[in-house]
Amino acid sequence: MLLSDTTDSILTLTLNRPESRNALTPQLIAELQAQLAAADTDPDVAVVILTGADPAFCAGVDLRVIGAEGGWDNMGTKGRSGAGDAPIGHPWTPISKPVIGAINGAAVTGGLELALGCDILIASERAKFADTHARVGLMPLWGLTARLPEAVGFGFARRMSLSGNFVDARTALAHGLVTDVVEHSELLPSARALAADIASNNRRAVASLLGSYRTIQDHVLAPQVETEAATAATWLASDASAEVAKDAQAVIERGRAQVQ
Length: 260
Prior knowledge:
Blueprint: E1 2-7, E2 10-15, H1 26-40, E3 47-52, H2 63-67, E4 99-103, E5 106-108, H3 110-116, E6 120-124, E7 128-130, H4 133-136, H5 144-152, H6 154-163, E8 167-168, H7 169-174, E9 180-182, H8 187-199, H9 203-236, H10 239-246, H11 248-257
Parallel strand pairs: 2-3, 3-4, 4-6, 5-7, 6-9
Antiparallel strand pairs: 1-2, 7-8
């Protein structure tokens, strides 16, 4: 479910469930978190690239997991941070090395949150982004309502979340969600070239700079993700959330349609 390759101090992790548009299961999330944690202490890794097996980057949570017996608890929602072991408001425990998101296709809902968890985003011309939590009756748990407006502004973030509409790569670039848009065939070469530039610098200085950016960012984001987590907990305990879980098949069909 997760491919791993380390070449020239660059670790490339590829979500590899293409038939399911790389939808997230508890096992895939745990594997991703474990690989990133291992990279943090691996002296042979300077930079991480996260991408998906075509045609999508990540369609978000695999709604069939939620539709099974156990519902939301199958994704580890009792811990509020989602499946796996990560701080509230994060898809993985932040590491001391830069993570570049190479967005090769649709990044939807939880997939958009994975992208927002990266330090730098480069998009293929085929990339598109959407927050469809409201369409399928979910609430974000990985900091989307903090990180998305930080990237694109509150107005555009509200537009994305409340409408559920897709944003193409060029629009994402214009609003600051990604730093570059490249031809699809050039996505990984471009990400690797940037990663190589980073890896060629003094690694301690890179880690220190990244840590400074993260600390400054967290002064703002920490209380925001706590608010998001409290909102999600209230939603999960509500009758509305229970009704969505009961209507699992309809949720699954809406989820499939969003990345076709």
